[in-house]
């Protein structure tokens, strides 16, 4: 079993920044691709960013490219999402997810590739 716990969400004004953290336990974190997804009210959950198990490869949705940065610290079993230049349309519940299997990073933007999910953290961007 894998436990993922997100933190760092909150209320911020447009143009501001937030850093989300996701602490993982119960699995070999260093062999697992990690992702961030988000879900706004009335919308489907969507891919935001992903990072390979060794941190070498990162992937972003077009809507956040250049504004968000995903990173990880395998010594701390933690993945981060640094969000800058936030917009009201970034308002959503943000979820951390761990990909199924080891040393895999294919279909990183597909929800069904991820077998473990956190409870989510709310990010609200005011205009």
Q: Please, how many helices?
A: 0
Q: Note the beta-strand portion.
A: over 45%
Structural class call reads mainly beta
Task: Extract low-pLDDT stretches.
Answer: none
Chain-averaged pLDDT: 96
Q: Helix coverage percent of residues?
A: under 10%
| CA-CA gap between termini | 40 Å
Radius of gyration: 13 Å
Main sheet summary: 7 strands, mixed
Q: Output the helix-strand order.
A: EEEEEEEEEEE
**Per the principal axes of the C-alpha atoms, what is the gross shape?**
globular
Q: What is the number of strand segments?
A: 11
Question: Can you describe what's shown?
Answer:
- This protein is mainly β and 127 residues long.
- The protein is built from no helices and eleven strands.
- It has strands at 3-7, 10-13, 18-25, 34-39, 46-51, 58-60, 68-73, 78-83, 92-99, 114-117, 121-126.
- Strands 2, 4, 5, 6, 9, 10 and 11 form a seven-stranded mixed β-sheet that branches. The chain has a four-stranded antiparallel β-sheet with strand order 1-3-8-7, with no helix packed on it.
Q: How are the SSEs ordered, and which strands pair?
A:
Elements lengths: L2 E5 L2 E4 L4 E8 L8 E6 L6 E6 L6 E3 L7 E6 L4 E6 L8 E8 L14 E4 L3 E6 L1
Parallel strand pairs: 2-11
Antiparallel strand pairs: 1-3, 3-8, 4-5, 4-9, 5-6, 7-8, 9-10, 9-11
Summarize the structure.
The chain has 127 residues and is mainly beta. It has strands at residues 3-7, 10-13, 18-25, 34-39, 46-51, 58-60, 68-73, 78-83, 92-99, 114-117, 121-126. Strands 2, 4, 5, 6, 9, 10 and 11 form a 7-stranded mixed sheet that branches.
């Amino acid at each position: 079993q894998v436990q993922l716990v997100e933190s760092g969400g909150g209320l911020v004004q447009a143009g501001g920044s937030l850093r989300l953290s996701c602490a993982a336990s119960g699995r070999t974190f260093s062999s697992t691709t990690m992702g961030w997804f988000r879900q706004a009210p009335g919308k489907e959950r969507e891919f935001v960013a992903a990072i390979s198990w060794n941190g070498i490869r990162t992937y972003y949705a077009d809507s956040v490219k250049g504004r968000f940065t995903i990173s990880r610290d395998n010594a701390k079993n933690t993945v981060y999402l640094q969000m800058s230049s936030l917009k009201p349309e970034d308002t959503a519940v943000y979820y951390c997810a761990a990909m199924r299997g080891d040393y895999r990073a294919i279909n990183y933007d597909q929800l069904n590739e991820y077998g473990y999910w956190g409870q989510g953290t709310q990010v609200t961007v005011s205009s």
